[in-house]
Amino acid sequence: MPLLFLGSIGFKELIVIAFIVLLLFGTRLPTMMRNLGKGVTSFKKGLKEGANEDDAGEAGDGDEKKS
Asked: What is the reported pTM?
């Protein structure tokens, strides 16, 4: 299934695009990927902490009176 905005892109075109990306971002690419990994890790950690807070909040709701 071809992507709508790319049309039918072949293997040769992907190699050319990858080569151009490496030329443009070659020296910064490892740093960019490292920062991306740190961001994903931080996001997952935030999701876990948010889920733990929600669970703790639901357990504490039974003690409060609702009007």
From this structure: 0.49
